[in-house]
Amino acid sequence: WSAVLITYRMVFLLIGLGYLIHVIPENKKEAVRGYFIRIPLPAKLAVIMVIAIMLYSMRSVDTVPFIYFRF
Q1: Taking the C-alpha atoms of 56, 65, 3 and 13 in order, what is their torsion angle to the nearest 10 degrees?
Q2: pTM
Q3: Is residue 68 pLDDT above 90, yes or no?
Q4: Quick one: average pLDDT of 1-30?
Q5: What residues contact residue 47 under an 8 Å CB cut-off, 6+ apart?
Q6: Given a cut of 90, is residue 37 above it in pLDDT?
Q7: Where are the beta strands (DSSP E) in 2-63?
């Protein structure tokens, strides 16, 4: 299991972050949303770039064939 956790650590981190967002109260989420709206444009671009780099690093290197073509 340790090899799986090490290999897919970013995926598990993203899943955990998603679960964490579900338990945060709505007023806290709205406060973060309001803060993001108020920050300057360069800071917004930096946040978006960090998210894009994280998503890019989790992509698959190989093209996965469509499973239903095997039947």
Answers
A1: 40
A2: 0.59
A3: no
A4: 88
A5: 36
A6: yes
A7: none
Considering only the C-alpha atoms of the chain, give the largest distance between any 2 of them, rounded to a whole number of Å.
53
CA–CA separation, 15 and 2 (whole Å):
17
Query: Phi and psi at residue 42, in whole multiples of 5°?
Result: -60, -35
Q: Are 24 and 71 in contact (CB under 8 A)?
A: no
What's the sign of the alpha-carbon dihedral 17, 19, 35, 28? negative
Task: Map tokens 């799986």 to a residue.
Answer: 4
Instruction: Name, in order, each residue with C-beta under 8 angstroms of 11's C-beta and a sequence gap of 6 or more.
Output: 58
User: Could you give the dihedral angle defined by the CA atoms of residues 59, 50, 17 and 7, in that order, rounded to the nearest 10 degrees?
Assistant: 40
Nearest to 15 by CA among 41, 53, 54: 54
